[in-house]
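Entry 14: structure prediction run for Serine/threonine-protein kinase MRCK alpha. Input pasted below.
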Amino acid sequence: MAGVPRDVDDRICLMESQFHSRSSADNTNSFSVEALQDALIVLYEECRTSSYKKESTVEEFVKTAKPVVDHITSLRLSAEDFDTLEVIGRGAFGEVKVLIL
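Run finished. Output tokens:
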């Protein structure tokens, strides 16, 4: 493949840079760690709740990914991490609040 380094260490560095690059000029070719975490959580939830959840490979993935997903979820920001300054709206689907960290 053209443009791919032959050296293993160079390829590993290149792969890692895809996940740590924050350059807006190269934004189309990189993922943030947060985007990968979101993708893992969505994949886990889809596998856990789908009609395929009894298939052995899906079941094994869910079993393997559960501790990682639980850990990531526990580290993410949640409403409990903020103090409410004011409730500015209420509706059928919830509240809109002004929060401070």
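Notes: Strands lie at 83-91, 94-100. Will compare against the previous run tomorrow.
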